[in-house]
Amino acid sequence: MAALPVGRLVLQQLLRVYIDIIMLRRGPQDLPASQFLMLSALLLYLASGLALFLTHVPTFAGASAELTVAVLIEAGFFLAMLAVAGKMLRARQTLSALWGSGALLTFAGLPLHIWMQAQPQEAAAAALPGLGLLLLLVLSLVVAGHILREALEIPLPAGILLVLAEFALSVFVSARLFGGSA
Fold first, then answer.
1. Cβ–Cβ under 8 Å, residues 53 and 109
2. Residue 1 lies in a domain
3. Number of domains in the chain
4. Residue 43 lies in a domain
5. Is the Cα torsion angle 174, 46, 73, 170 positive or negative in sign?
6. 119 DSSP 8-state letter
7. What's 86's DSSP letter?
8. Any domain includes 74
9. How far, in Å, CA of 107 to CA of 113, rounded?
10. Is 88 contained in some domain?
């Protein structure tokens, strides 16, 4: 068997770490505190988020605007939590973990979003993709709570509550800025 190029091996190792984070077996401390990794994870997160937003926002500009606001709120909230806890040295790893795992979960959920959009509004067939999306949302909240647990050294329920607070803030701000009910 031929040896893998170093870059490909590193990507495979990073992917394993992200999957382990999603499975709650590892945490942000298992990622390098690399600005390059954090920015790479952000780019993947933005790509996945844009693909997701385009499934329900009619224009590229609208989807980009909503995504930008959501990411700024998320980053600001989690950086504020790290600052309050005196753990700012963990910022790169925490954001890398949040954005990298978030990108993977978002890409995994895209087929469910597309399936859901293809169903008539009143169709009972929409229940199956809807249930899948609900489970994926719960998993995403738990994974982000787990990342905060590790980064802030707090219990998992406290991490999940912080993530729920950020989620509620993001939904509220987005509803105020872009319409819809909060």
1. no
2. no
3. 1
4. yes
5. positive
6. S
7. T
8. yes
9. 10
10. yes
